[in-house]
Structure formats: C-alpha cells, structure tokens
UniProtKB/TrEMBL annotation:
Main localization category: membrane
Organism listed in the record: Filobasidium floriforme
InterPro entries listed in its UniProt record: MFS, MFS_dom, MFS_trans_sf
Positions of the Major facilitator superfamily (MFS) profile domain: 34-439
Higher taxonomy: Eukaryota, Fungi, Dikarya, Basidiomycota, Agaricomycotina
A single GO BP: plasma membrane lactate transport
Transmembrane helix as UniProt keyword: yes
Protein name: Major facilitator superfamily (MFS) profile domain-containing protein
Compartment list: Membrane
GO molecular function, a single term: secondary active monocarboxylate transmembrane transporter activity
Entry annotated with the keyword Calcium: no
Protein keywords: Membrane, Transmembrane, Transmembrane helix
Topology with respect to the bilayer: Multi-pass membrane protein
Transmembrane segments: 29-50, 70-92, 99-117, 123-144, 156-178, 190-209, 251-268, 288-309, 316-334
GO cellular component: plasma membrane
Amino acid sequence: MKFLKSLKPPGRTPDVIVNPFSIMRSIDFTGWMLLLSGWLAWTMDGYDYFSVSLTAKRLSVQFGKSSTDITTAITLTLLFRSVGAVIFGVAADRYGRKWTLVINLLLIAIFELGSSFCNTYQQFLAVRSLFGIAMGGIWGLAASTSLENIPPNARGLVSGFLQQGYAVGYLIAAVVNLTLVPNNPHTWRALYWVGTGLSVFAAIFRSLLPESRSFLEAKLEAKSRGDTGISPTRAFLKEAKAMLKTNWKRAIWAVCLMTGFNFLSHASQDLLPLFLQDNKLFSPHNTSLIAIISNCGAVVGGITAGYFSQYTGRRLAIIIMLVWTGAFIPLWILPSSFAGISAGVFFLQFGVQGAWGVVPIYLSESSPPAFRASFAGIAYQLGNMASAGSAQIEARGGENWRTTVQGKNVPDYAKVQGVLLGVIIGWTLIMTLLGPENHGSRFEQAVATREGAGKMRNEDLVENHRVLQDDNAETGEAYDVKVKGNVEHVEKGAV
C-alpha cells in the first residue's frame, strides 16, 4: 500500500479527466506555435538520424564498404550527441532557447548538406561525427521550447505528441527514400538535400517566434531581485557547480533511466528488418509495411500515455506501458503471418513509445528548474550513448543463438530480441520506481544566473503550482511576460 501511495502525484490532482480537445483549446496561439517549432525540430532529428540507415546499401556501394562499416557512421553519431547536449543545453540555459535552437538547426542543415557531398568513406565518418554534435542539442531544446509555454494541464498530452515527432521524422524519410531517391539521378544524395531544406525551414520558423515565456519571466525576476553583483557568466558557472553538487545522485539516476529507455527503443527496432526477412521470410515490401504499422502504433501509444499521465502521474503511466510491452513480446516474435506480426509490432510499439511519450515531461519535471534544457538533454544523450552498442549486442547474440528456417541455419533474432527486451523492461521498471514524482512542478520559477538557482529543486515548486492548476484546469492561467519597447514586465493572463 505504501508503494502504491508513492506513485500518487504530489498535491491535488483533478478527479475528472478533461476532454483532450478542451485541453487543446486552453493553449493560446503563441503556445501552439512554440509547440509546433519544438515538434518540428525533433521531427527533423528523427529524419536526419534515419537517413543513414535508410541509405546504408547505397552508401556501401558508393564508398566500397560493407553495410557493417556504414553503420559505424550511426554509432559515431550516437556517441558524439552527448557533446552537443552539453554545448547547446548549457547555451540554452544561459542565453535562452530561441537563438540556441535556431543556430542548432542551421548547423544540422550544414552538416546534412555536407554529408550529401562526401565522396570518400573517411569524409562521411567525419561529417557524421560533427553531425552528431549538432543533433545532440535538439531534444533538450525541443522539449523545453514545447513544454515551457503551455498550461500545466496540457503537458502530458503535449509530451506524448512531441516525443512521437521522432517516429514521424522516420516516416517522412522513408517516404522520400521510397519515392524520390530511386527516381533521382543523384540517388541517396537527394534524401539528404530534402533534409537540409526541411532543417532550414525549421530554423526560419523558430526565428520568427518569441523567446520562451518562462525563460523571460525567470530572467526578469532575477533582474528585479538583483540577486548577484557578479557577471552573468560567472554567476551561471557558480550555480552550475552548485547544481551538480546538489543533484549528483539525481543525475546518475537520470542517465540510468535514459539508458534503459534508449535500449528499449533500440532492442525493439534495430534488428526488426533482419528479423522479419531472415526469420519470417517477409519481402522487403512487406517489411516496409510492417515498419510503417509499428510507427503508427508508436504515435498512438505516445500520445495516449502522455495524455493519461496527467491524471495517473508520470511514473505510474510509464510502469503501465512497460508492463503492457512485456505482455506483448510473444505476439511480437511468435506469429509467422503478416497479420499476426503486424498486430504484434503495433501493440508492442504502442507500449514502448507509450512509455517514451511520458519521458519529455517526466524528465523536464525531474530536472533542476534553472537547468532544465541542459540537465534533461545531457541525461537523454548520455543514455543514448550508453545504448549505442545495442545493435552489436543483438547481432552477436544472433551469432550464438541459431535457428533453422526452411532448412537454412540463420540467427535466432526472435529469441535475442525477446530476451534483451525483457531484461531492459526490468531495468527500466526499477529505475522508474526509484525516481521522483514531480507532477505539476512549476516551469517559470528560476533562471540559471540567479543566486541560489543551483540548489533549487523541482519538489519545492510542486505544491503551489498544483493549486494554480486545479483552480484553472481549463484556462491554464499563469503569468505571461510582455515586452513593450525595451521594457519587460509581467502580466497575469492565459498562457
């Protein structure tokens, strides 16, 4: 009973589930635009990441390398993303979300374009490594841009919508690869050119929108209080040091949690095409169809779980989705028919990405308030780096666990995926149970240069915010930052 009580969100929670359309109406135009810009940035991240895997065979012919050699570019991208998370996350918390994200997206466009003009394998690896640094900043910036500018009661729904931008990015890249690339004289390069144009569009779109309102409010509050007499940069470094000293245990937990989540994705996705073609003897066409079906399940699951996490609490929603995923492992790997496998991948990805749909808001609420972009982004990418070897682990497992399909000895990817996914679900469950529940914490409270910001915890900001949310469940009333001339001031109104 004590365990169940620990999963209950702190403060008062709504007794009645609010219609999602009512929640959507509570978001004002600026909030919608900032949400769309964050979602678009994350969608481009998904598009750009999967560009290499989608063109792996063409790249192997272009550079005279094996497909295994080409996957080295994917591994390097994952490894260097942590560097980008540090650089862009710190810049966002110090200087603001807007121009940091614009610069980040423009760098992605530059490196995507550079990838398309590589003529040697070494050039491609170098550019994709630099590309990984640029990609590393996107998640934290996209999450803070999207979640900081909406009513508290909309965060769960928006979290699920935001996270599934990655799946949408994959779908867009797959469609371009299936339609444009085969009919273009420049073949694989055309896929990267489209990604370049879309990333530039995302950067321009973000540049036309204002800075995050919660960041402006916190900055204004810090100025009005006059907390420090030292330079902003020195103040930031001082508070960052204090934050790490105060939150080092939480930082370790966050990286362990995101390691589990990233393994959860890779274990259920990386070898799916090989599993379908080698173990189930599906054609490349049917394999592509099943991949599309799985991504549809991912989008539905992410949005659904994110929405209900607003009422169940973040951890309980994640736990339910992890248990759901474990229950559907047999349906995912045992059937041999197209219909059976399709149902299996749909419901399994519903659970996997359902759990993922809660991650942006859960990690944001669990981060130190003044370092939300950097803390969440770095934890995410360090977990990504730790899981970078997932495909190699599964491939090596397939070399040792074999099966016979129509008289041919092949790797038993079904067993490998099932065992690995089961272990990862157990790990992620434990990490989720060990984590905090800061459902409803305030997002507009602290700026990183304010004295004492490094020691501030989200737990300290939950209770007052919950009262505000309950009293204004439909309107999402909060304080808004208005700028008139060169003077910033705070006004109370609907966010």
